[in-house]
Amino acid sequence: MAEAVANVARRINATVEEGKDSLDLSSCQLISFPEGVFKVLRTVSENIRSITLAGNQIKAISSKFFSTFTQLRELDLQGNILTKLPDQVGEMEHMTSINLANNSFSIFPEKLTEIATLERIDLEGNNITELPLEKLSTMPALKWLNVKSNPLSSSTQSALHSPYKFDILLTTD
């Protein structure tokens, strides 16, 4: 465990000292976003454009995460155990890509449909049965939605055969 903490500290310090616009805390055995990171990164949080938290055991992301990293463009949360996102995710004015693949979502996080700049949503390998297709179809920037390996209901699967202005990746039987 001490090694994991040291690894996180090293990566955070590198982001601050090198003035990086990205933070990679993938595969760090995290169960949440470390509270202390907010303090360490407060001077550079406006510069952070990309955060990777893939391959951890994160159960929840706090609203503080989204209110701190307001300039975030890309967020990779694949391979965690998330079931929902806080409402504040809908206020992300610059986000273009979110990877939520291989988590534990059973309900599509509808607040994502409020992000006007969002181009890519990856929800492969979750437990989602329904999609808010009307809301998704009104997203101005959406180009790509991956819902492969989800137990989509037959009515949702039928609705997905209609033409949409974005690409939909599905598991075909």
TrEMBL record:
Family annotation (Gene3D superfamilies): Ribonuclease Inhibitor
Source lineage: Eukaryota, Metazoa, Chordata, Craniata, Vertebrata
Keyword Chaperone: no
SUPFAM superfamilies: Outer arm dynein light chain 1
Taxonomy, superkingdom: Eukaryota
Keyword terms of this UniProt record: Leucine-rich repeat, Repeat
Gene source species: Crenichthys baileyi
Entry protein name: Leucine-rich repeat-containing protein 20
GO CC field: extracellular space
